[in-house]
């Protein structure tokens, strides 16, 4: 499976889609259960789930360990509907104040697969473009490839 990323020039938004060989309920669990998140989040690096409260108003914080360094990411869940939708904020702790709002929608394809459609809205076009320039697309794809493998093992 491949991830399709769309980032229209001059827009605050970035969107992506990917199809998983799993039910919407299983994909939802992979984003909301700490023991599953730690197995795929962060792509090729070790992920630590410091906090994960999958409920409206709940917070999450993950760390990745890369070549001896530790990087933190955190956010707040705004809306969760099991097997259907997750709305959360996302902030890289290395660049505080640059918060994005992400909406993930899970669609049952009717053949045992689930389409993840996500939209990330940044505060500025510069924030979005900076995230893209930082290699975000490659890192996100590494994580989603790993998620494919984790879903297959559940």
How does this model look, in words?
It is a single chain. It is built from 4 helices and 8 strands, in the order E-E-H-H-E-E-E-E-E-E-H-H. By secondary structure, the chain is an alpha+beta fold. The mean pLDDT is 95. It is globular. It has one domain: Alpha-D-Glucose-1,6-Bisphosphate, Chain A, domain 4, CATH 3.30.530.20. The two termini are 18 Å apart.
Short description:
The chain has 154 residues and is of the alpha+beta class.
CATH architecture: 2-Layer Sandwich
What count of structural domains?
1
Enumerate the strands of the largest sheet in spatial order, edge to edge or round the barrel: 1-2-8-7-6-5-4-3
Structural class: alpha+beta
Say what the CATH topology is: Alpha-D-Glucose-1,6-Bisphosphate, Chain A, domain 4
* CATH classification, class level: Alpha Beta
Question: How would you name the CATH homologous superfamily?
Answer: START domain
Choose one word for the global shape. globular
**In whole angstroms, how far apart are the ends?**
18 Å
What percent of residues are in strands? 35-45%
Q: What is the typical, i.e. mean, pLDDT?
A: 95
Cα Rg: 15 Å
Low-confidence blocks of residues: none
Main beta-sheet strand count, sense and barrel state = 8 strands, antiparallel
- SS field, number of helical segments: 4
Helix and strand sequence: EEHHEEEEEEHH
Number of strands: 8
Helix content: 25-40%
Q: What oligomerization state is this entry in?
A: single chain
Task: Give the helices and strands, then pairings.
Layout: E1 4-6, E2 13-20, H1 24-32, H2 34-40, E3 46-52, E4 59-66, E5 69-81, E6 85-92, E7 100-108, E8 114-122, H3 125-133, H4 136-153
């Amino acid at each position: 499976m491949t991830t399709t990323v769309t980032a229209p020039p001059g827009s605050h938004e970035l969107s992506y889609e990917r199809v998983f060989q799993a039910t919407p309920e299983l994909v939802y669990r992979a984003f909301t259960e700490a023991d599953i998140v730690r197995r795929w989040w962060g792509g090729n690096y070790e992920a630590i789930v410091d906090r994960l409260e999958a409920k409206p108003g709940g917070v999450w914080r993950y760390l990745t360990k890369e070549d001896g360094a530790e990087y933190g990411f955190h956010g707040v869940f705004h809306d969760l509907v099991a097997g259907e939708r997750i709305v959360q904020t996302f902030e890289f702790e290395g660049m505080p104040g640059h918060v994005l709002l992400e909406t993930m929608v899970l669609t049952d394809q009717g053949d045992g697969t689930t389409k993840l459609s996500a939209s990330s809205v940044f505060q500025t076009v510069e924030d979005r473009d900076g995230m893209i320039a930082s290699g975000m697309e490659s890192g996100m794809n590494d994580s989603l490839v790993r998620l494919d493998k984790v879903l297959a093992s559940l």
